[in-house]
Amino acid sequence: MTKILMVCLGNICRSPLAHGILESKLSSDKFTVDSAGTGDYHIGQLPDHRSIATAKANGIDISGQRCRQFERSDFDTYDIIYVMDHSNYDNVVKLARNSDDISKVQLILKYVSSSSQEVPDPYWGTSEDFDEVFTLLNDACENIAKNLTQ
């Protein structure tokens, strides 16, 4: 079983969406997807209501997710760690113990032809910003799923 972790700052906007999107594209027999945040701001909380609504509008239910903080032990648990931006990358890599840990961490948008390698944080934005993030993540997750299942 391949275990995949999605990481953003607070684990309430971007990574819960990425978690739900990729999970919907992969077989649960072969893949496990989870999410976490680099910060401890929202531990135990539901994803942001706008993330839940955006996912629901696209046929994905993320309302069962709960926010948690990324831990060093996640390097032992997960095979691949996708981060939403360079700040998340830096924060995760700071916890790495060795080059094997670092090799698991990737920017999620490396899988799409986007003008940026960073998924914008929609937290302070509008519902349209969440829709834009969903589209970016859906494109990335589609390509990731294809690569993983070939």
UniProtKB/TrEMBL annotation:
SMART domains per record: LMWPc
Keyword Aminoacyl-tRNA synthetase: no
Keywords assigned: Hydrolase, Protein phosphatase
One Pfam family in the UniProt entry: LMWPc
Residues in Phosphotyrosine protein phosphatase I domain copies: 2-147
Positions in coiled-coil regions: none
Active site: C8 (nucleophile), R14, D121 (proton donor)
Molecular-function annotations in GO: protein tyrosine phosphatase activity
EC id: 3.1.3.48
Family note: Belongs to the low molecular weight phosphotyrosine protein phosphatase family.
Protein name as catalogued: protein-tyrosine-phosphatase
Source organism of this protein record: Gelidibacter algens
